[in-house]
């Protein structure tokens, strides 16, 4: 029998000793001021007990991890029509690369890079009655936790400095792949990125993707086919320019955010969230990546 | 002695016979509704009589030709500091290519592509007391004609559909190469593009660039060194992706606009404006390019 | 219990009815002359009986599928030093894109695109005593079949027309990432691509990758860690520009070749080879892709 | 009256004082071993005396300057058919960029980048009876000097290390824009680059391009129209990624080589060669560029 608590404890103590924690994202004050020594993990097992360590119960800015939620919600609303507006190929480029979007005439490479996520936001703005409120409720439902909130300060800060994202949205609009006005979509987008969640809440919210489309209290669902496709996209596109590296070293579908969070999952087995605010040069959590490698090495669990 | 009137008349009658006039720009109604059969030329000679033919006295939207005026004004205001924010190399790419701007980290290739012209607009917004008014007065001065005006309808139409330009401005801002806010700069930019001038007015306004920096009534000036550099940029960058072709076929510095105007000049000799609204696939006036080729072939005048 | 034979039979009869079989590769006569109506499948299950249908016992040119064998052999010879010379990221571009190789200064994106495979070939030329002979023996060992041979005619044809590959090899050499001379490496490379195998032989040879690194007769092996990494690369990079699509639609690690073969595998469960010579526009077997989609849909087997 | 000797002497003494002479090309021993302190200039005036200074009478490797001769010869042989195989647009990229060639499907941007020059070499190999011998005679004719020779050692050295050029030639071949075999064309190309000439010989050989197509002894000629076009290409494409900068700072058509030579010309007025082996980061002679800027500033001579 695998001793999960021992494994988490060892990862925690090993990583706590390392000197290099990466660089905390500094482009907005709210992210910059996070304590770089924070580190937490939460393992949610589908067929057994859960395990956790460190700062697993502290909220952080989930940022790009929210792109998985908007993708899931968009698929539940309009099904395969999603794929008329976004592709499913890895981008092979840093996360803000406009060149590719221009070259491919406004069809983002996949829904997990910024351009693709902005298209998903546009879909939700079109489809939901009260987009920000309804989307927040969706996240609360799948996490089974009504306390999850947007951080308005973060959303406002991002809007003030998010010129690259505004450039992307305008470029999408020039290719007629943004149907609402730029400001409305960006307001939604900056809010989704500002969601604050704990490691536990993230692991709970991803339960749906590990559990064949059914969330913990059966309140929301996606089809098995949709879930498989989301997991495939997570594996091939979840880590920007480092997606191949993550598949190679960790071997699990997952998604990272610039707030230092990473969620990964093994279908039918578990979801696992790590949080450590320092980032590697590719923009993924430095210790989070190491923690996930250590976990899959110790447990020999991977999809391959 | 060269019989200029005969040459212009022959070009006019030859081109009138051609079936293919290119495609009139259709992205805003104000441009789309222009009569595609319009054709005019105006030759302003520095040391002799002027000659003209066809619709030389009809106003049209000068669009990108205005970039030469903002470049000249920016150079007169801040001199070589202009070159800290924009390069002088041909772009080798279509006029709205964001890829290059991203790759070169926010330094536009030259001041005659959209990104470079938006940086020039930003400089004028920073340097002029009343940017739109003062710039209009500059153009009136060098053309020696107080009747030149912005077309507000055109400016508003462009603002409504100019998503690519907004994308460029935001991308420049993300690289810290736009110092004023996006809306203010774009408002100035869309106004400069909306300037309406006749062939005669354009030829008169470019007199400055052919006449070593002194305009017709000596009201404005640039140094000889600045003029030579502007002419060099016109030759290497004045026709988007077709600059080499124009240098090759025509052999004169010049600038085209999507309204169908082209101005070219031979230093110390003449300025020549053609106008025909239909465009070739590269976005330059279809008959205008042919008219200029015919003129330099007939007269054997070129800088080479 | 899953009725595999029924599933294969149904896929076979369904696909036989389709009009569009894609385009057979035509760049060398040996590939062009293959009967476009050929279709075969062979399922090798690790814990149960094997199943097959159609032309499963006919040899075809495995082409790029051989890149998996050279990768495996290179890893077994020099271990992680492989990753000093090639990356593990999806290429996000067609299979012969030199641009990316130039931009990334001679480090191929991954070992399954042509440039990466040429680096693997270079490693084998350096490390093996008699490269072509020893590599052929390796393939025979893992397939447990001494009858597998190179097709010399195919190898010679490819050498005569393989200018893009010569360009790649020379570009690698210019970046000092090819240690042997171009001709020797290309001779090896064109031979590996010329290997002829049946669906059964391919399924048998990939047993190793599904079976945690042990081949059917235990004659060759890779570590579990190496196998997982190879499978990860297969999933993220095995289908050129369509890798994401394959992960998305099929959800299995796999590799295709321009001869119309595709091998896929579910770790610890099975290997499955399809062969149909007609290709889709991305260069993967048209019916082979459809057959694999149908198989995973019918069986609900995938890594996600 | 302009005091040319005084101007050349002053440029010479000023530049001799500068510490930074750039970096001598080091990729082959024959170029690396050149004395970095060499500096020479030779001014050939069409309507007056010639002037010179420093090491004007010493031979050096003309390298890419030879591309102007092959272009001229190709145009004299097949006229406008040249433009079916090469474009006339600036490349906007470093001189060995394969990406652009791939993107534009084997049509080089212009005849002065390596890919375009290799196509010119291919034309001469097709059209000339004894390509290397006949081309050498052409150069001797236009320079009016039978002593000009290839440096076989340089040609052999370049062939041994010219992997990027071999990559380009193979890529051209893959797009069917190289009609002879790669080795034959590259042998010609490496020989043309190995030509050794003095400043005087280069200025004499470019007399043709300044003198409307007639060389000094009327032994060879091009049409006025062809000459104008060559000059236009020199201006827009003669200095790799620095063509715009050269047009901007110097304002003359010209061509540089990695051996440290630069030739420039003012139509109907003069040809001027500078030689200094140290290069700037863009691959053009560091002091040569400065010398030409100083000359045109002092004399106020430019095409603009």
UniProtKB/TrEMBL annotation, chains A, B, C, D:
Binding, substrate: 64, 114, 158, 165, 189, 240, 258
Biological process terms in GO annotation: glutamate biosynthetic process; L-glutamine catabolic process
UniProt KW keywords: Acetylation, Hydrolase
Signal peptide start-end: none
InterPro entries, sorted: Beta-lactam/transpept-like (IPR012338), Glutaminase (IPR015868)
Keyword Hydrolase included in the entry's annotation: yes
GO molecular function: glutaminase activity
Record field: catalytic activity: L-glutamine + H2O = L-glutamate + NH4(+)
Pfam families assigned: Glutaminase
This enzyme's EC code(s): 3.5.1.2
Oligomeric and partner information: Homotetramer.
Xref: PANTHER family: GLUTAMINASE
Family stated for the protein in its record: Belongs to the glutaminase family.
Record-given protein name: Glutaminase
Organism: Cochleicola gelatinilyticus
Gene behind the chain: glsA
